[in-house]
Structures are given as C-alpha cells and as structure tokens.
Amino acid sequence: MAVYLAGSPPRKARELAKALIAVTEKMSLCPRCHNLAQGDLCWICQDPERDKSRICVVEDVLDLFFIEDTGAYQGLYHVIGGLISPWEGVTPETLKIDDLMGRLKNGVQEVILALPSTLEGEATSQYLARLLKGKVKVTRLGRGLPVGMEPEFTDSITLGEAMKGREEM
Ligand SMILES: [Zn+2]
After folding, report:
1. How far is the CA of 54 from the centre of ligand 1 (A)?
2. Residues, Cβ < 5 Å to ion ligand 1
3. Quick one: which of 11, 47, 106, 140 is 20 to 30 A from 132 by CA?
4. For 8-62, what is each residue's pLDDT tens digit?
5. Which CATH number characterizes residue 65's domain?
6. What separation in Å is there between the alpha carbon of 46 and the centre of ligand 1?
7. Does 12 fall in a domain?
8. For residue range 84-122, what is the model confidence (pLDDT) as tens digits?
9. How far apart are CA 41 and CA 146, in angstroms?
10. How much distance in Å is there from the Cα of 14 to the middle of ligand 1?
C-alpha cells in the first residue's frame, strides 16, 4: 500500500485515510458471531436464507471472507479471534469460545472447524473438538489443505473443495 501511495498524488493518500476513518467509525463487531457489522447483527446473522444448523469456526474475519468467497458454504460463522498459544498468553478464556457454546442450543447440528493447520491452529481445533463432542457433530476442512496452510493463503477453489470434503473429527 505504501508503494502504491508513494507513486500517487497526495490527494489519494488523503482520500484513503478518510475512507479508513469512515470504516472504523461505522463498523462494529457482530455481538453474535464477531464478524464485522454495521450497527447490530452482521449481514450473515441477519440473512434468513442462511443454514442455521451449521456454524463454521474461523480464527479471524479475514478467514470468514475467504470462505464466503468460495461460495461453497451457506451456514453461519463464529470468529474466535485468535488461536490458543500459551507462549503468547492466549488461553481458551481469552478467545470467543464461551459464547460459541451458548449458540449450540439454537438448533445447531454441525460445527465446522476451519482453523489453520499450524501448531496453534491444530491445538485450538483439538481443544474445541473435545469441548464440542457429544453435543454436536464436529467436522474440519478436508485434508486437501497442505500442512501449515492457513485458509487465507489458500486459493478459493481448493478452499471450496476442502469445505465440501470436510471430515468428522
Ligand atoms: Zn454475525
């Protein structure tokens, strides 16, 4: 972005700064799934057409956008806001896991774990699977994703295939 701005007239930088400020002023986080929202619930939680029996757990909003982009998923999301990492002081209590559990009673049948296949992502998936098992069907993205790969760095077709080919944990 800096390279782009350096080659543009100063007016461009001012416009971009204004746009960024406008976004941060207008945007909030969805109180239900922690996606970006304007006002109350996000557009996904508000959409009556979405499949409310499925919740896809992602690390951050960026991963949510990438999965949306594949068009392979019609359910709801839950952004947990990070990955368990004792080294960085991230424990399950600091993530949005409690309210995920609270959402299960509303007719949810499947929770899809779409977390990175990194060390932290794997630890978080295992933790969630233990917590959720017996309460709901727990699946993860298909093993088509290379080890160490994060959803946001995977192309849309591979990610869509991984969503369709998800496996029960
Ligand atoms: Zn939402």
Report:
1. 13
2. 30, 32-33, 35, 42, 45
3. 47
4. 777 877 888 887 777 777 788 999 999 999 889 999 999 999 999 999 999 999 8
5. 3.40.1360.10
6. 7
7. no
8. 998 889 999 999 999 999 999 889 999 999 998 888 999
9. 34
10. 31
Establish if 116 belongs to a structural domain: yes
> Which domain range does residue 75 map to?
50-168
Confirm whether 3 is domain-assigned: no
Other residues' Cβ atoms within 10 Å of the Cβ of residue 46: 13
Give residue 40 CA to ligand 1 midpoint distance, Å: 9
Choose among 56, 83, 37: nearest CA to 160: 56
Q: For residue 115, is it within any domain?
A: yes
Distance from residue 3's CA to the centre of ligand 1 (Å): 34
How many domains are contained in the chain?
1
Q: How far is the CA of 13 from the centre of ligand 1 (A)?
A: 32
